[in-house]
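User: Structure tokens for this complex, please. No commentary.
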Amino acid sequence: MNKLEADVIVVAAGAAGLAASVAAAEKEVKVIAFEKASTTGGTGSMGMGPLGVESRRQRLKFLGPTKDEAFRVFMDYTHWQVDARLVRAYIDKAATTIDWLEDLGVEFEDPCAYFPGGHATWHPVKPGTEACAANMYRVLTERAKEKGVQILLQTPVQRVIKEGDRVVGVLAEDRNGEEIEARAKAVIIATGGFGDDPNLIKKYTGYEWGKDLQSFRIPGLAGDGIRMAWEAGAARTEMRMELIYLMPGDINPELAEAFRQPHLLVNLLGERFMNEEIMPNTAFTGNAISRQKERASFLIFDENIKNHMKTTKGFDFLHLVFPYTNAGNFEALMKDALDSGYEYVYEADSLEELAGKTGIDPAGLKAAVEEYNRFCENGFDPIFNKSRKYLRPVKEPKFYAGKQLPGAYGSLGGIKINYRTEVIDKNWNKIPGLYAAGTDACSIYGDTYVFILPGNTMGFALNSGRIAGENAAEYAKALKA
Ligand SMILES: Cc1cc2nc3c(=O)[nH]c(=O)nc-3n(C[C@H](O)[C@H](O)[C@H](O)COP(=O)(O)OP(=O)(O)OC[C@H]3O[C@@H](n4cnc5c(N)ncnc54)[C@H](O)[C@@H]3O)c2cc1C
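Assistant:
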């Protein structure tokens, strides 16, 4: 067995783990980071960017809420059902993290909101040579190495070592299957949740992946850190999916955008169930869809709406991640999808045929379309008060539909921490030497992802990581003194 020693051990080098490693190393302690994958960055490398408040960029452009405003929005939104001290610590830290990252060399686009009415807290990373936010994680990895952090790739941690009450290290396995015993004064767990394990998703959230949930599955996110923390005595928090909505299977993103526009959205009964103009708030839409029969919904439009979407400014809603402005290539993309056997887009010459293909109740669909068309004619939707500019009748064959299911970026929560990111046991005592950060410990949203302050999960990962790194380093130093 190989033996290693450090002041602080960080379990994983994803978003939270890298931030924790750098923050601890900047306090001049010896850090080892163990990472299961062959690269650093974790899910973070697939995202666009974190939340920031009062960043230099925001202040220069008079954008976004202040720390106090962001805290109030957060707590109103979650009805104070979450740990207010942890939220406050996160928001306060977020007021410095974007500037800290810029000083390390990360470049950001202008901060923006995610949907109408949201706050401009999202700081998308300038992609540079890498896609999405991968650039930022490369910078953090380089900074970690420069500060002497030893990053061990393909070296998953198996469990936390405890002596008495105190956490004193971890057991890991290197890429050759050799066991490593690593000792440290403090251990920070940040393994990104259980979004890649359908069994854990079913067990802890009730969703059946592939049936009533279409979530991103990032390889390796198997709940390892949560299990290890629980084994070490950590209390459990609520566990949820970070709910949004997505089309099932592998769909061309350009085609998918046509089915995310505010047309007619119905459930399997054929009934409308929400104001479709709310669809850019993907968290609210995910909630609404997950309340429907079989948690399924279908976005429907006709030939006229399709032709409208093909005009230059055809899309009502644009998306930063998939920057298509119209459905100019709709027919070709639809043909490709249907020819390749993609099962979740449909076209038909009549509403009855569409009902047959989608499984929507035909009488329900007919009634819903008649009612909706009446609303469009009157320019007024008395049920959901959808804006008249989106009220376009569905009457001209062909008819098109796309299936939408609840989706998720990943899981949320598992390990109970306090506002210093110290892990808490069932009796509300700290487990000395054990810290957790990021998704494994992210139970601050209550029942709905706080998308009104976008960049929130990456924001929590980076900021709870920084807090954990700083506190674990101070704790290690105090033990050495
Ligand atoms: C497509 C997509 C887009 C997104 N966009 C955004 C966005 O723009 N803004 C935003 O705020 N959020 C976004 N998110 C969410 C955000 O990326 C995550 O919330 C964030 O990365 C979580 O950080 P983390 O450190 O907890 O987990 P991760 O970044 O996933 O890191 C976890 C790491 O743990 C490692 N690991 C697992 N088990 C072990 C083990 N036993 N030992 C050692 N290592 C282990 C994994 O390999 C991984 O590297 C997005 C997510 C997805 C899927």
